[in-house]
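[SOLVED] Need 3D model of a two-part complex

Original post:
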Amino acid sequence: MHFPDQQQRAYRAWITVLVTLALAGAWCYLRQLNMGLGLTGLSRDVTWGLYIGQFTFADGLAASAAILVLLSAVHGSRSFRKLVLYGQILAIASAIACMLFVVADLGQPSLLWNVLLHPSPVSIMFWDVVVLAGYLAITALIVTVTINCERKDLPPPRWLRPVAVLSIPWAIGMQTVSAFLYCGLPGRSMWLSAILAPRFIVSAFASGTALLVLVLRFARVRLESETLRKARTLIAYTMALNLFFLLLEVFTTLYSRIPEPIDHYQASAPWIWISGTLAATSLALLNGFRRNERLLPVACAFTVASVWIEKGFALVPSGFVPSPLGVVTTYTPTVPEILIAAGIWAVSALIATLLFRTAFAVRSYNGEKPYLLSVEQEILIR
Amino acid sequence: MRISRNGFLRFLAAPILMLARKRATAAHGKRWVMVIDNRKCMQDEGCTKCIQACHIAHNVPSIPDARREVKWIWKERFRRLFGAEAVPVMAENRLSLALCNHCENPPCTRVCPTGATWKRADGIVMMDEHRCIGCRYCMAACPYGARSFNFVDPRPYIANRSADYPARSKGVVEKCTFCEERISAGRLPRCVEACPSGALVFGDWNDPKSEVRKLLESRYAIRRHPELGTGPSVFYVI
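Solution:
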């Protein structure tokens, strides 16, 4: 595949940035291995922080491919047909990020295999590892087979459809298990809410689809306006549900006047306000998209940012503050901790870039034009 | 190898026999509990003899950063231990002891993904620091703050390392084990032995004649957050 020079340069710059971030993260992680989790801002009272927050967000991104599969494979929506592969590539990259975040958070990562050597089915974390690994395997299988079939210009094999359909309940189950990690803990009243799993599922669909639109925009992929309109509807409904679910939680907590849950919401109030405002803004922009197509990427950016703050910051440290003993401990991630998290995202983005490039190459070889090019670039290529 | 009919039947019935044995121990065996006589304990609020004895014996490091300290038994304000149950005026400034409650229904063992922490038939919640992967899920699950994580290598923070008890490595969780190594030798836990006023009483709940049962029958006792259904084995007589 030939890129115009300008794009070639941009692509190289992008890869350089990602590799640099990944190396910086790896160096900091070596320091963490050496020193222990004392390198992070975590403490006795706030035992999970940036890593587990980012894990929760990435888990949602990974699960979001399910809604595209559902709409195109089960409901026969033609507008998402081409998007499914891209969504699943994003899912693979996010699932790998999830695993890396879990490993980064462990005090003894070399003993990780104990989870499989001494399986404890009563522990939700055991199931989370199982479900995540299974989801990664299923999605990787679907993507490999799809790309190979498209390369050979063959229809996908018949057995692929049941596998793709299986990935839908699997993804929803994965989000449910992730929510259950938090839901069943006595003394952590902020998380002791049955609506956490539905919140995870709708925010996953909203943020994953929005990120996919942004990524494809960034990669200059041509998308039909019908597809964009469908994506907008999907994001708008899931995001509106997410905001509604948040309001349900806030009402139940505040109206009951039970002090402990209120204390938690007080601790995370700034994050909730930021996330909620971003969500409301994205909804307003998605509504404006009907008149102005350029608003969609902006709205998508607001959606992703809203869910990122909600899952990565409002949910995790705040559930620990105050501690069950009523101690307020502030948690601030350290610079190495942030670099490790950034490095993990960079690795994930590198994987996504390579897979996306493969998919684009196969599709453009087949005579499709996945790229959105300017007129001059079109002439240059000819 | 010959297989006898008796042996074959025994093999088939093994799971049932195991279950039966487990239930038998639960009903007739020991169940260790601790009773803290708070009137005695609170007489000398500056006393830390039990804490020192425990921490020295178990190589518990003294980490200066309170946010990351490791503690098996410690003193805490009444209000923090008993929450809304404690009336503010007195509870804000009086100190009382806190340690792992060795719950009847421990949330920490439920969430552990590797079985590194588990409850024994005699009620002691155990911790295997060699199997622990350091995910800290048990710390999120424990509503009593009884678990500590080694954020750094603890060894430099142990003043005189005892050779009788292993020191832990960085990246694992640890906590009080009711001195199971001493109980199995027929001795009392360190803290109980070290208390100068006899405020700590340790014994078998299943034995109606034990000192703990007598104390609990004669005086009003409370436990920390019993509404969570964890069933703490540490009682405070007030």
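Edit: Residues 225-256 of chain A form the longest helix (32 residues).
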